[in-house]
Specification:
By secondary structure, the chain is mainly β. It has one helix and 24 strands. Strands 1-24-23-22 form a four-stranded antiparallel sheet, with no helix packed on it. A four-stranded antiparallel sheet has the order 2-3-4-5, with no helix packed on it. The protein is globular, with a radius of gyration of 17 Å.
Length: 290
């Protein structure tokens, strides 16, 4: 059985968006509904938090320092030294019920993030690409609940999911231009196994998917065959990310959001950060080049 350990009993409302900083050997993550950016140091066990003024869906480190974030009001820069956020662009000024959710940088230094209706009913969300020159491009539309964003090791495939539709798609990805084409189904998840949530890929090209409500993380090969299931001690894993000095630890954010007292009594570490000995290495995340 794969070892799973709670390394931070954070009790986050909606932990999400883990990004490993290889230079600093720390894990950045967000609590969307707790309105906070976090930095977890596995060596010391210390977790530092910075409040945000609104829901924050995802982030990436910047080459020039600080963070780029995707929040309820769009893209912005966040300075952790003074806690200030500087707006970049709100690509959805007329969609007050939307917020940003899943996002991460591609390996050419662009930041991708997707929006969703917070109530998860209407397909008003979209996937956007923020370039280093701060131009913003709408790449995919008609999204209900955005998740599962990552790239294959050779950068030729982009993966993206809609949790409510229980679907993960893949596109051909042109890494130089950052364009996508040839959308097709990669996975259709049985609702009994949970909803497809955040994802990452390992160095062997396998897709690791958190399955919200399914008490599991699953590893799929590049043809969509389930190769392994890691049972979790909490019902709502949200997103995996490889970290550790050798990129061989799979960190997983989780959530307490929506769980009643009886459910929490059965999973008291819900909302914590978990570490999995995955037996395989991940790929270092690139910083946003803008």
């Amino acid at each position: 059985m794969t070892e799973v350990a709670c390394v931070l009993d954070a009790k986050a409302s909606l932990g999400e968006g883990p990004i490993w900083d290889a230079a600093d050997r720390a894990l950045y993550w967000v609590d969307i509904k707790g309105h906070a950016i976090h930095r977890f140091d596995p060596a010391s066990g210390q977790d530092q938090a910075w409040p945000t003024a609104e829901d924050i869906g995802s982030l990436a480190l910047r080459e020039g320092g600080g963070l780029v974030t995707a929040t309820a009001s769009g893209f912005g820069f966040h300075d952790l030294d003074n806690g200030q956020r500087t707006p970049i662009v709100d690509p959805e000024p007329g969609l007050a019920k939307n917020r940003f959710n899943d996002g991460k940088p591609d390996r050419r230094g662009r930041f991708w993030a997707a929006s969703m209706e917070d109530a998860e009913r209407e397909p008003t969300g979209a996937l956007y690409r923020l370039d280093p020159d701060l131009s913003c491009h709408r790449m995919v539309g008609e999204v209900i609940c955005s998740n599962g964003l990552c790239w294959s090791p050779d950068e030729r495939i982009l993966y993206f999911a809609d949790s409510i539709r229980h679907m993960v798609w893949r596109w051909d990805f042109e890494p130089e231009a950052g364009t996508i084409s040839n959308r097709r189904v990669f996975l259709e998840i049985d609702p009994a196994m949970g909803d497809p949530d955040g994802a990452t890929v390992d160095a062997e090209g396998h897709y690791w998917l958190a399955q919200w409500g399914g008490w599991r993380i699953a590893r799929y090969d590049p043809d969509g065959r389930r190769e392994r299931t890691v049972e979790m001690p909490v019902a709502q894993p949200t997103c995996p990310a490889f970290g550790g000095p050798d990129l061989d630890v799979l960190y997983v954010t989780t959530a307490r959001f929506g769980l009643d007292a009886a459910a929490l009594a059965k999973q008291p570490q819900a909302g914590g950060i978990f570490a999995i000995d995955a037996g395989v290495k991940g790929i270092a995340e690139r910083r946003f080049a803008g």
